[in-house]
Amino acid sequence: MKDDLYINKRRFAHFKNLVENYTRTKRHLEEYGEILPYEKIQQVIQKQRRREEQIENIQKAILNEHDRENEVRNLVKNYLYTEGYLKYYRDKLPKHILNNMLKKQTFRKIQLENLINKVDEEK
User: Fold this and answer.
1) What is the mean pLDDT of residues 30-56?
2) Are 18 and 52 in contact (CB under 8 A)?
């Protein structure tokens, strides 16, 4: 419970910073857009789109509306890709890298099991 509160507090602070940066950049673009080079304007527009996506994702996370299906799909994909990679390169990898990959695989498996259990509990 406290962990969720702490995480949401951090998310909200990040959300606030994103919105402030988005607003400030939008205002600057309106003011100075006429004198900026085309390439710079394109960069700013891309940055604003990324901020919009981040704002939307944080809103969903705070409201617990995260798309679990995509999260599960990404976890499974990463797990399977890493398993295939380990299958072919296990003998050639340095020990510390191999250990890190195996730890990540363990955490992915645990996270996947937890997500599946949450979905089962909600039904």
Assistant:
1) 91
2) no
